[in-house]
Amino acid sequence: MERKEFGLGDIVEMKKPHPCGTNRWKIIRMGMDIRLKCQGCDHSVLIPRQKFEKRLKKVLVRAGEEK
Q: Which InterPro entries match (predicted)?
């Protein structure tokens, strides 16, 4: 299985949506754990990197591409 490329500041889509109904998350911290901020309600969650990589569906917007 190939590793997915993601970076700090990227907007990503996860396999399951947040309870608020939005499925867009911004990566705001990276390390052994990944901190994500929901783009709908601004709630942030901290999940282990391995679990994040498993649940990541795709990168919607790269950090350098934002307008």
A: DUF951 (IPR009296)
